[in-house]
Structures are given as structure tokens and as C-alpha cells.
Amino acid sequence: MRSIVKGSVGTIVGETTPVAFKFLINKEVGRGAYIKAKGDGREWILAQVEDIKRSNTAYSISQLTDASRNYDSKEMMIAESRVIGVESNGKLRLPTSPARPGDPVFVADEKLIKATLGLSRGDMYIGMLKGYDIRVELDANTLVQKHCSVLAKTGSGKSYTAAVILEELLEKKVALLVIDPHGEYASMREPNKVGDFSRYKVKPRGFDITIYTPGEMAMNPRADRPFRFNSLNLSAREVAKMIPSESSSGQLGLLYEAINALRAETDVYTLEDIIEQVVRSNSKVKWNLVGQLESLMELGLFSGTATPCDELLRPGRASIIDMTGILPELQAMIVAHLLTDIFEARKRRLISPGMVVVEEAHNYIPERGTGSAASTNILRTIAAEGRKFGLGLMIISQRPARVDKNVISQCNTQIIMRVTNPNDLKALSKGLEGMTSELEDEIKRLPAGVAMLVSNEIERPVTVNIRPRRSRHGGVSTEIISKERAKAATPAGAPEKRSRPRAQQAPGREGPGQSKKSRSSGGLLKKVFGRA
Question: Per-residue pLDDT for 110 more than 60?
């Protein structure tokens, strides 16, 4: 074997191929580290350590059972590395011939890692390459035009990471429309106070957001404005989308008859007129339909001035539709109607280009066989055709297995945090190109606040430490047992247990993000909102 070269971390041993090689470690190097070795063309080959094995021939079973053997320790550490490629004129290619056994291996320098992986081609700063002080940047245009998904189990930092992306898009003056079931993104208007800002070179700040509620303003103290639909001259198809899908064919037929009768009598009619027309019918099924239509009336969605589509998508601003207090089936209907209006307006170039962000996406675009939602078809349409019309889509979910696979596969940028459920891992394998068993194992081991990034703009999946948010994190888990209660429950004379302070802004903590005030607010009608 050749002598150890100064500065090297090991020497290539055994058989090599253009895509993999092993090396004997002579200096400390960890799993996941980027290393380099010379190729036949004498260019640098970039590779990544995938596994490390330690062996000692003196402690094999055959050695230990033979008393005459010499037990002098001869320990070796072998690293198995996967070749990423060779950077050539800004493009990545695999070497035409394998690295040579006996050649030295070195720690890859920052310039080679960035150039080979393509980490500096973008303008959206989302974090640092795990184990390195190398910024990971995505291209904002590509992310919006070709869609994005953020997938992770609860508590891994999913909503935190999504907000980091939204902050970057807002700084690039992208218009955002956020479907927010739990009011987690309302805190984006406030600057963050917790995080390693100096290391990541991030300055806290709040952002320009407007919070809309589809219900009554009294139901949601966070809301800035009510969200309303146009109630004039609704077509039967529009109304049908807003009532439960289990409505019978007789009820839907009655709805069409009522609206056709109104159109024959007048040029202008409202939802209230439709209800009155249904009441006049002699049909036996009319009262169920009347109840459904009255629920829409009582929700307030069709009262007052309609919210214009161009108000919801404005460059550099985020419009948040806060669904707090709205029943799940009504949420899907609202999203279906809203996004249909947005997509049609965008096709006619009546509103700014932008991005639709859907939190808890499994509730709005469920996988076939796991449920149904009124919003599924329009979200599939935006995923398939939105790029042509300047309307991007970001989906966020803690249950990848329950999200429509066709929509996931349309997302060219995938941000995956810790996932352990076997069904969810299987879903990721189906939705992502190049998913291997090694990547699956890595996804299962990701700590909170660390993401695997898969993008056409980056040459291979990379692991990223997500940067601190600029704005305050609103998805903090609600404290169940407070310090005061725990203290009161401690028997007299018993030693007090010291508890850690709750990390209010940590990326790995998520929850409903509802204030005490909003949780205690009562509903207008139980049949619309359920119990408060």
C-alpha cells in the first residue's frame, strides 16, 4: 500500500467502480461527509461517505478460540462512499473510469461541494448543508412554477420549514395565498426572538400578511377581514360544490329546477332567493336541501361584499385564509370554490401570478381510497396546469400516504423531514424519483429541524439544517400540564423537579397555535361550527 499522503483522510482500497469506492480511514471522518479523490483524467471526483465499518482481525471468533494466537490489536475503519460526480463546465457528470486503489482521499473543499452539487444557483436561502457552513439556496422561479411539497411527521418542524420558504418568497415579492386550517401562520407578522441568528446571518422581521376568516369575525380574533363569496346569480354548479357531496340526485335536481325558475323570472337573485324558491317546491326532499342551503347562509360566506380575487394575490404579500372554527367538510368546499375562482382569474390574467399554499394537504387532496374532498379536482388541476398560467402550488402534510400521489409527483422540489410510518415511506418512494433504501433509512433518522432536499436544481438529495425563521413561529404545541399545576400537585415535603423552559420557537414543535382567547370563543351555530 502507498504511504499516507499529507492532508489525506484515507486511502482507497479494494475494487472500485465509477459510482462507488471504499477507503481505509486514517483520520476522523464521519458518515455523510463529502470527500474527494483524483479521477483518471486527474479531475476531482466528489463522493459522500454512506457508511463506516470498524473491524479488528485479532478479535474474530477463530482468533479468540485459538489460545496460541497473537491478540495484538489490528483495528481498521473502512468507509463506503458513493460517487456524486465530476463538475465540468457547470454540469455534473459521472467519471468515465473508477478511482484508483491506493490513491489518497481528501475532505472536499467548499468550492467543489457547491459547484458539483449546484447549491449556489438559487436566490432563496433555506439553511446550511448539514455538517458544513455552506448556504443551501433554491431558485424561487423554479420552486413556484414547478411546485413544492413539505412532508414530515408531526413535531419534525414541517410548518416551521414551510414558513421559512414563505419568508423567502415574500422577500422576492411573490404573491401568496395560504390555506391555514389552524391559524399557525398569523404570527408571520411579528419578528422572531429565538434562534441562532448570528451563525445563519438572519435578521428577524415581520411580514405583510392579511388574515381572512370565512366565518363571523367574532369567531376568530386573529382575523383582519371577513372572507366572502359573491352571492349574486350563483349557478347550480357553484351552489352544488358548496353543499355536502352526499346530497341525493333528487336534491341536486331540485336545486337546478329552482335556479332555472329564478333565471326565468329575474336578472338578479341571491342565495336567499334560491332558498325561498326551493321552499315553494312540492318535493319531499326539499327540507334537507333547505337545511344545507341555510347552513351556507348562516356561515356568512355569502353575506356582505365579496372578497375580490385580486385582493388575495398581491406581490410581496400573503393572504391567509384562517379556517379556525370551520367544519372540515365546509373547509374543503370553501377551498374548492375559492381556488376555482383564483385559477379562472389567473387564466384570464386578471390577477397577479403567485403561489397557493395548502397546509394539512391530506384533508384537501386525499389519496384515492383514503377519503374524498370537494377541493380535490381543482388542486389536481393547479398541480397539472398551474405552471402554464403562473400559479404555483405548495402542499404541506404530516401524512404523505394520504395525499394524492399524482399531486406529490408534480412537485419538482421536495422538502422531506423525519418520516417513520411505513405507509408514508412507501408513498414517498412512489412519489419521488431516485428514492433508495439508503435514503429511506436517512429520512427515518433525521432530527427535528433537519430536512432532506430533493430538487431538479440540485444534483442529488442533500441534508439541510433549516435556518431560523425571521418571523415568530406560531405552531407551538399547547402546554397541557403547566408548571403551576405540577407544583400544586407535588406532595408537601417532596423535592421539586426542575423542568426545562419551553422552547417557544423551536423548529421541531408544532401544534394548533390557537390563543386561549380564540379557543374559548363560542360558535354561531352548532350545526355549522360544531362545539366551540
Answer: yes
